[in-house]
Amino acid sequence: MGIGSFAHLEHSKCLTTPTELFDIAIVGVPFDTAVSYRPGARFGPRAIRQASSRQTSFRGFNPRANINPYQNWAKIIDCGDIPVIPVDNAVALRQMTEAFTELGSRAPLSPLLQKPRLITLGGDHSLALPALRALKTIYGKPLRVLHFDAHLDTWHPAKYPNSWPSDQAHFNHGSMFWLAGNEGLLVNDTSRPSVHAGLRTRLSGTSWGDFDDDTAQNWLRVVADDIDDLGTAGVVKTILDAIPADDPVYLSVDIDVLDPAFAPGTGTPEPGGWTTRELIRILRGIEGLNVVGADVVEVSPAYQGRGEETALAAAQVVYEILSSVVKRGMLEMGKEGGAELGQEVKDEL
Ligand SMILES: *[C@@H]1O[C@H](CO)[C@@H](O)[C@H](O)[C@H]1NC(C)=O
Predict the structure, then answer these.
(1) Is the minimum distance from the CB of 181 to ligand 1 under 6 angstroms?
(2) What is the pLDDT of residues 30-89, one digit of tens each?
(3) What is the CB neighbour count within 10 angstroms for residue 172?
(4) Which of 156, 186, 188, 192 to mutate to test the pocket of ligand 1 (most atoms within 8 A of CB)?
(5) What are the E-state strand segments in the chain?
(6) Is 157 or 50 the better-scoring residue by pLDDT?
(7) Strands 144-148 and 194-199: what pairing?
(8) From the UniProt record, which GO molecular function terms apply (predicted)?
(9) Of the N and C termini of the chain, which has fewer Cβ atoms inside 10 Å?
(10) Is residue 306 included in any domain, yes or no?
(11) Contact 270, 260 (CB under 8 A)
């Protein structure tokens, strides 16, 4: 079985090896002290790596994407975990921000990329805040987010039950996009919204106020039930109509977007979600997007079944994201086969 790196990729302790260069890095963040319900996502990176052990570069061709992301132009490595302290979230937030910024600022190996791409294994969802802070520093401009989740995560921190206002309480896994918006990390232009997909959360109080707050923060919503009316193709079209393929986007996948039947191993499960196959299909449909960073978060393996279904789904999502990033790179490179693939991507769009 070998050492437990993601998909048996070459492993480097990148943070203590500044000379290590890559195009795409898998980075674990074993952090879960900003959660509101069940803890345990600190063990997510290890579980996802273990569940990826049947992924190899040898048998890595993705028939849905017509590409083997592990045998192509990109050097993909597993950078190990960012060290995060579990008893002081202010320090943990700094640790994550500095690590994402340093790794994401390195020179990529391929001349194709302006900057390398980080794909983060969570960890709880609050890590999207330091990831977005780093991307703002690296690219010097705000980004949009494509967010797969049962929940909004744009909640004002004071909307939590039993909340006492404090800086630390504000940094939690349901408010990080509210914080990111307030910090100017997200595009704030109604013609260029960020997008949620897979929502089915209950809302505060007696009406739609949470949705109104979300709209005011420049988010567009695809709810879980939309898939019954639109199908996966319609969900894809809604996303692509909102986010053009050239706009840089941060792709954030909370595994609780899946129904608890498919992903019970998570901190805040919500019945009535998408199947793993539907999510894969949607991810394939959006493969042309310009993903500059991504995370797969909220895998809390203590609550998953013995068959590791939740971590397996997360490892598959990582594989699909890798396939898309590598495929888009091929297209841009005009490499052999890239032109045809490019046409295919355009036809699909
Ligand atoms: C975003 O734009 C809206 C409308 O112009 C404005 O009311 C709001 O304050 C802006 N938010 C931020 C964080 O700049």
Answers:
(1) yes
(2) 999 999 999 999 999 999 999 999 999 999 999 999 999 999 999 999 999 999 999 999
(3) 24
(4) 188
(5) 24-29, 76-81, 117-122, 144-148, 194-199, 219-223, 248-254, 290-297
(6) 50
(7) parallel
(8) agmatinase activity; metal ion binding
(9) N
(10) yes
(11) yes
Is the model's pLDDT at 255 over the cut of 60? yes
Least confident interval from 117-131, 138-152, 327-341? 327-341
Q: How far apart are CA 27 and CA 47, in angstroms?
A: 13
Residue 188, ligand 1, Cβ within 6 A = yes
pTM of the model as a whole: 0.95
78 is in an annotated binding site: no
Query: Is residue 1 domain-resident?
Result: no
What span, in angstroms and rounded, lies between the C-alpha atoms of 47 and 312?
A: 9
Given a cut of 60, whether residue 19 has pLDDT beyond it is: yes
**pLDDT(330) > 60:** yes
Confidence band for 328, pLDDT divided at 50, 70 and 90? very high
User: Is position 273 within any domain?
Assistant: yes
Indicate the number of domains in the chain. 1
* CB-based burial, 235-251: b 16+ in 10 Å, e otherwise: bbebbbebbebeebbbb
Q: Give a yes or no: residue 266 inside a domain.
A: yes
Query: CA-CA distances (angstroms) from residue 279 to 35, 218, 260, 327, 342?
Result: 24, 24, 14, 19, 23
**Do 71 and 105 form a contact (C-beta atoms < 8 A)?**
no
Alpha carbon nearest to ligand 1 atom 2, residue: 188
Q: What is the pLDDT of residue 333?
A: 72
Question: How many CB atoms are located within 10 Å of the residue 56 CB?
Answer: 13
53 touches ligand 1 (CB under 6 Å): no
Q: Which domain holds residue 170?
A: 6-348
